[in-house]
Amino acid sequence: GNAIVHVRNPLTIETDVLVEDGRISDLMGIFLPIPGLEGRVDGTLSLSGEPLNLSGEARLDLRNIDFFGERFPEGNAIGFMNDGLLSLEQLLLQRHGGAESLLARGKVSRGYALNLEIIGDGFSLERMDLLAGAKSPIRGSLLLDGTVGGTLFAPEPRGRLGLQRTRLLGEPASASLLNFDTHDGELAFAGD
Question: N or C, where is the chain less crowded by C-beta within 10 Å?
Fold first, then answer.
């Protein structure tokens, strides 16, 4: 891509970045590397202001995304910074014509404090990439309703995974709910 950076006295920055056919891992690596997230990106990033109080926006189109082994052909991200505070309007990954989607939105505040909501909907166990080729006796719909607190450097996910319209060995089975929470930096699970 292209980058234009202006540095002035008193210290302020004006940055415009155009990304064309970039790698998500390279772009994220500037801020916070996320192992398990790969794909291609096109878009713009504009920031200006004092280094700790930047304002601006990012608009990104994503494609060929691999998110921890699950593939999504398309997605997008829209975020805004206002005096150093990041608002993620949406990070949306979709597949199967939008029938399966993963949405994250929220804020990153001072001290890199996270307040994110994550929603996954419409996922079918039989179409999950991680289960491809497995002769699983379980079928059903998977949903995710979670939040991420903590900080960028020590995230604390919590929420629930649900399995609905479940069939086990071809027979109807009851729905399952798995709650997860972070305690002392460890992710713990409990459920039915």
Answer: C
